[in-house]
Amino acid sequence: MISGPSAVGKSSVVKEILKIDKTIDRIVTCTTRPKRESEKHGEDYFFLKKNEFLREINNGNLIEFSEVYGNYYGIMLSAINEKINNGRDSILIINWEGFLKIKNAIPEGVYGIFILPPSIETLKTRIHQRREDSPEAINHRINMAREDMDKSKFYDFCFKNFEIAATAEDVLMKINDIRKNKVINS
Fold first, then answer.
1. Domain of 162: which CATH number?
2. Is 186 inside any structural domain?
3. pTM for this one?
4. Are the CB atoms for 92 and 30 separated by under 8 Å?
5. How many domains does the chain have?
6. Chain centroid offset of residue 51 CA
């Protein structure tokens, strides 16, 4: 499972990993947030209306879910079970709360990787470059990022994302170490 603060580059790192290693699947999560122009339904997220998302919660179909910045995010239990049943190595982008819930529910074979920004200033620049948020929302995201980064201590491995391709290579090397049972915390 890969986590990190908003705008740290989690999705970009995962996309790069999936380009390099075709044997790894991505578990696609659900969200109620609006789709960005560059995103595809079913590939980046399953974009659901709020009432659809709440129905999935009520039906017990989500292994975990949370509300972040006014939008819901969650993971279908069936998506995880499908990968486990097929014996596929998989990547899941998730916030720290979801990571802890899933790690508690499935303690074997689940590893947490936390992506950190090189600095708070770099993160601020990345958030500004998105051009999606008001100054107040940007300040809120920075404050949340500080809280998120404090949770990195719960993860098995942490990587600073200076550059997407290099971070993806580093994370993939760690994944391959895990696959070979040569896990060394760093």
1. 3.40.50.300
2. no
3. 0.81
4. no
5. 1
6. 23
